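## retry 2 of 3
previous attempt timed out at serialization; input unchanged, resubmitting
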Amino acid sequence: MASQAPGPACVSLPRWKISLAWRYSPGHRAWLGAEAERLLAFYENAADWSGGGFFWLGQAGQPVTERPKDLWVNARLVHCFALGSLLGRPGCALLVEHGLRGLHSLFRDPRHGGWYASAGPDGPADDRKQAYGHAFVLLAACTAAQAGHDTRGLISEASEVISARMLDQPRGLYVDQWDRGWTLCGDYRGQNANMHLAEAFLAAADATGDEGFTGRAVRIAEQIIGDFAAADGWRVPEHYDSGWRPVPDFNADRPRDLFLPYGTIPGHSLEWARLLIQLRERAGPGGSWMLDAARKLFDRAVSDAWDDQRTGFGYTLGTDGTVCVAERFHWVIAEAIGAAAYLHAATGEAAYDRWYQRFWDHAALYVLDRRLGSWRHELTPENAPGNAAWQGKPDLYHALQATLFGRIAPAPGLGSALAAENSL
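## retry succeeded, writing output
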């Protein structure tokens, strides 16, 4: 009798098919560590050892010395070098100390309090007090504390200024900017500064143990995402008037504005998806809605803006939900990586791990600049280097964090997660 071919029940799964998720693979984790080192080395050159603070960097990492120093760039670099110190990288602790001195000597307003938006050798270049920059001062202070620096005074001062000057009562959201003397508050309200304040409050809760900060972050998320984004089909409205009514046509004539572009920004939906997973870890029963919201934000952003043929995300959407600015910005793919990693960790669903790999494929092939260093901050819709909006490479924050999202289980903050690893 002829032998029968084995049926499906007789087929065993090859050993190579039994594997962990791609983001857990030892090779990938080693690659992430090497990429973090490459990035940190590039941004060492930003330090102005004679004048204080950190310069804006050009395409090849050269300091742009004629440009005033920006608060958001300086505070984010303090945060990043503190993460580098927690990773065990020599030199980063001194860069944190240098950056903290710069925040105090260059940007802090000794008369009226708060921090200037930008500063030059002769004093403030832009003396407005912006919630966006203040959020990163608080984040920097908290991550520095987790890396072993005594920033208790800076944490206290930053949180007090934010609460006393920027809280928009009774909503629990925050105004965007004041003049230098805190006498004139602008009418514009924006979700971007509020999103980063939620991130900073999470870091503050970790660094101080004060759960009041968690409550502030939850209140922001409940309104920006639970109310506004949910009502807009899980796109995040960016711009509002002084009564917190969305203004969808704001800056319609400035679609490539670096911070306040017309339309909605899928990258912010992805960033919020990641933040919601982090916030859910701390919020307890009050965060039960956040996983579902994170899923919907992720799905909407990918559906609206991911270019499946060429890869990459379009930057903004018009009021009809179609891509308005199709250029790719480096920070968007970094936040997509974070959202996919944290949603995979929260759900265990393989689809998110596949997206995580897909996003890193795009970044590795097009965004990482192997010749000049760091990440290209902008690409054309065809994924060629571009500079329609971004000039140079000032920003380490998003890229460095992307190298950590796949290595660290979701926690309220990256600083606290690294500090906990170091205490084992």
